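Honest question from a wet-lab person: if I give you the sequences of every part of a complex, can you actually get the arrangement of the whole thing, not just the pieces? Trying it with mine:
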Amino acid sequence: MPTVEIDPDELRRLTGHDEKDDAALREDLFGLGLEFEGETDDGEFELEFAPDRLDRLSVEGVARSLRYQYGDDRGVYVPSTNDAEWTIRVADVPEDRPYVTGAIVRGLDMDDAALESLIQVQEKLHATMGRQRAKGAIGVHDLTMLKGETLKEDDDSAKSVTYTGVDADEETMVPLEGDQELTLREVLDVHHIGQEYADLVADYESMPAIYDEIGLFSFPPVVNGRRTEVSADSRDLFIEMTGTDQWTVDKMLNIVCYALDARGGRVEEVNVEYTDDAPVTPEAGSELLRPDLVTKTKTVVHGDIETMLGVDLDERDVVDLIERAGMDAEPTETDDGAAAYRIEVPPYRVDVLHPVDLIDDVGRAYGFNELEPRYPDVSTVGGRHERSRLEDAVRDRLVGQGFEDLLNFHLIDEEQNYERLNAQQGSDVVGGGEAVTIEQPYSEDFTMVRSWALPSIMMVLENNTHRAYPQDLAEVGFSAHVDERENTNVAERRTVAAALCHAGASYEDAKAALRTLVDGFDEDLETPATEHPTFISGRTASVVIDGEEVGVVGEVHPEVIVEHDVELPVAAFEFDLNALR
Amino acid sequence: MKLPQAQVAVLEAASADEQRTIDRIAEATDLKPETATRAAFELDDAGLLEVTERTTSDVELTEEAERYVEAGLPELRLYEAAVEAGADEEPVGMGQVIGASGLEGDAVDIALSNYARKGYGEIDSGEIAADPEADPDADDEATALDALAEGAGAYARETALEDLDNRGLIEQTETVIRSVTLTDDGVTELMAGIETAETVGQVTSEMLTSGEWAEVEFAEYNVEADAERVVPGRKHALREMAERVTDVLVGMGFQEMQGPHVDADFWINDCLFMPQDHPARNHWDRFALESPEAIDELPEDLVERVESAHREGVGPDGEGYHSPWDLDFAKALALRGHTTSLTARHLSGEAMGDLEPPQRFFSIEKAYRNDTLDATHLLEFFQIEGWVMAEDLSVRDLMGTFTEFYEQFGITDIEFKPHYNPYTEPSFELFGRHPETGEMIEIGNSGLFRPEMLEPLGVDCDVMAWGLALERLFMLATGAEDIRDVHGTLVDLEFLREEEVTY
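Yes, you can. This is the full assembly:
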């Protein structure tokens, strides 16, 4: 679960509630679904957040939500914006990253706390909506350091920057935290930030870059240029976002604009101008005014709210709850005459896909824990699956015979599953099935699904040589191997495996246990001699139940026993559970 | 006087002048050692015999100690080398002395740390001084070591043994030896003559069929004596917990589901309205298969409806995700990250045909997480999954169901923390009060399935669901601290044998 760091003093200041002590704040935050995880070294709250309300990734957004919760604010708030002076022109768009958006915020009175919060909201947005910058990446610049190209000869207030695709070896910049002019290729190769994000652009045909009249100042999604670096003294900011989806970068921009608005900044629109020959974008040739701070409206049926919450509400209550959730509601009727609300949703909300999301907001504002639990008056018949009943019956019989029931991992590695048992992958013996393998395992010990259970039992014997004997162990469990006849191309089996390990454990003991088990299910058991590399030749038999070969029984080969550092004989069997059905 | 046969035998084998060990008595009387022990204690109770217990310790040299017996203790070698180099007159460079001593690797540190401790001299600023007064031949530890090597450990000094033990040079094991001597009363009774009582130990088949049992007296046993411990066959402790949960759920009207462990991402994630670029679906968190790679067939209509829900949303006011959706990814195989894939298969009708409300289903089956293994996290764990399908379900029904479920395990005061899941809305993390510690702890995740999940699956009523790891419930209920002791091949058989039964 991601976390966000929030300074409680900042929160008190931004909400205007100096009287709240830390404990009271923590309780209020829990009510928002932000769970207190701990405190950082410098006394900030570390809060766990659910990745739906990304507008709460900053202290400003959390403060806004708290003010709604306290009833200090009601209804939708949309910051007013100034008209655009700046344009982002998109020319020779980098096809792998065709979308861009932007905004200007002026008149900020930043301090270290505000700057820290701005950096955090960028990082958290990158980690969530931005999918580690692949889908959307943010660049924030000091506007005073930009020199726009003049758009019209007679109007020097209209300025532009250009988003374009360039050759990595030809263009140069001085990156953040760097002190020399590097080509973009060098940035990716030698600069520490460049190296970190180099993978993102590794397959790009051309490198995304943003220019003003002086030169390249941003290399999204990798690194900004040093020239336009933001400091606590910056008052006017230029914000650009690039990505693989226009909606995503626009929404990320809205969240940042709301946060800066809460810091007293004045949002100014930016004109995004896609050229006609930008064939990969549906926005080709269009002009967009950003940020797109338009609210959206959804219709929620009154009865649906009552059903989902299980309580009766009157219209006034619902409108009140919606306003306390930071939205506006206007009573209306659906086409078939049902009472409903037209709910206006602010532009920083990225989580509202369906009216149920708004009903959830009503529930949160109402307080879910205020609801009285009731056991649903719905009658159904319970029961276990036949397979699990069978598994259990077999387990009971084995335990009755004195076996200790095991529960092993289904994941194992090739060496344990085959080699240490002398078995070969792809051979026509029990356990020899072709391995179902994991693509990118974390651990070398878990690289495949086990093709039989005996290797797991041998590992348990190996790990318990210091414990008392006899160690008669059994497992009714899962195994799998590749089988192209299946829709998933995997044959999943339930397997019955048992091993007797004590002085004098012999083939006869294993067969006696098997015999007793099979008799209990009134099936015929035959044990014709066979060969299996795990077992001693001449002391190995096929398990044939009702005429079908379903497993193997025998004395485990000393080579296998010694390999597992066990110093007592082991006799074992393993067969397919289905044979007992 | 009359005594049972075993007691008579022990009494006769014992001596008033000499302590005899029980083993010796058992050998002389042909009794099993445990029978002889029992008889001896009974005679002790009767005042005829005295049982004394002695603890002996057996000392064995470790491999390291064996080496020192050959080559000498490292600090002594250092001292000798130091004296050789003239360090008894003025300090000499440490490197020179160490080189001359022939010590290498760990032995150097061992030598240095013991040198000063045992007063062979000072080590200061890289120089070594030797105390001319020190006498390596009188070294207690060396003497004890030699004595032990020659089997004369009994003569070693206690303090020297302690030092050797601290240095890990010896291993001491203790055994209790019981010996008996006749008391004066015992001697008197023996002199007076003791008869073997006509008592019977074992009830035999012959005795029962012949009617002899009516004539005999049964020897009294010491019924409080310790009995031997038996290694039992028993069901795995975690399995017992799973069965307990199953009982509760079946009792609440839930029916059990089953389905594939290896499944297409379509069933694991797409059907659950998880966007394909969701962080949980990236290659690190997914347990993607290398071989085989993809499922052969998916139901085409369903695929279309699911894709459309992802792209466009459902309902007149619905919106989709702004994320890519690719059929190849949907068909890719993985080990299921949650058993909600079974729920998706059941709700769609794929598992057992179309379901009409009301329904309750559950499973307690393995789910897989591509993560690192530690004391509280496994790569594979049992997920308890349950859902209820009915018309017009509310959050209150969800709360009522879960309150009822957790109360069966003594977990009360359930709190519902609003939460976010891609496939449920509203969603709640469940918190409950731990029955022992009283803490509020997270006990599950729940919610009402979203319309974007249910509509494509063809469900037109409500479904509420919840999930919880069985291991978590197990750890809460048993206080087990390392789940690796319980589940998997690192299991400790002793833990399984001794773990309290769950019922």
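Two things worth pointing out. Chain A touches chain B through 98 residues (CB under 8 Å). The mean pLDDT of chain A is 93.
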